[in-house]
Amino acid sequence: MSLIPDEKKISIQSELKEKMIDPVKIVMFTQEVECRFCSDTRQLIQELTKLTEKLTVEVYDFLINADKAKQYGVDKIPALAIIGKKDYGVRIYGIPYGYELQTLIDAVINVSRGKTDLSDKTKDIIADIASPVHIQVFVTLTCPHCSVAASIAHKLAIESDLIRADVIDVTEFPHLSQRYSVMGVPKVVINEKVEFVGAFNEDLFAEYALLGAYQT
Fold first, then answer.
1. What is the pLDDT of residues 27-57, one digit of tens each?
2. What's the domain count of the chain?
């Protein structure tokens, strides 16, 4: 059974055709056993790649291909690295379904374009970042506001070589929910130092990223 409804496929196909510029590769890390959502995530990505010739997928076993996982900085599964002309540090952990399917679509489009619609003010803020920034956005598939925060994080990563952005479905990784005391979503953690909850506007998000860099 298809995971993406036919009517949704039509709209996604149209959006990808209209907005994608350069080819994008989704690098997926999975495991045949002891991974609840890996098979569904793989099916979802394979369905998505059939909607445009500009999108391809490479699938690796998290354990067998541990060197590849290390190369992409992947430490949990299922994991998706969205790669364009270069690796922008755009990652999704967990199945990107429900509201998070749009997070994946937005990531593919923005990586394909190699630039984003972030304001000049936001770009100026992150231009001051001088040390690596790791953004973790904790989401759930039923949260209508999470995709906004997730998309902004990914856009920040695309616009700065020093930013890496992980979007994580907290229900699939309960140990991280406990570790970061995730009581509400979206919850954003930057460099293990700066935290906030909610879908903040992009320039304030960027200010927090800059603060995270300073506190490292």
1. 999 997 778 899 999 999 999 999 999 999 9
2. 2
Residue 121 exposed, middle or buried by CB count within 10 Å (0-12, 13-18, 19+): exposed
Query: Would you call the peptide bond into 132 cis, given omega within 30 degrees of 0 as the criterion?
Result: no
Cα separation, 37 vs 13, whole angstroms: 24
What pTM was estimated for this model as a whole? 0.97
Domain assignment present for residue 144? The answer is yes
Q: Kindly compute the dihedral angle of the four CA atoms of residues 98, 103, 105, 111, in this order, to the nearest 10 degrees.
A: -160
Query: Cα–Cα distance between 131 and 212 in angstroms, integer?
Result: 9
- Give Cα 96 to chain centroid, integer Å: 9
Local structure of 135: helix, strand or coil: strand
The length of the chain is: 216
Q: Which domain holds residue 144?
A: 120-215
CATH number of the domain residue 97 falls in? 3.40.30.10
Task: Identify whether residues 98 and 12 lie together within a single domain.
Answer: yes
- In 3D space, the residue among 69, 75, 62, 70 whose CA is nearest the CA of residue 32 turns out to be 62
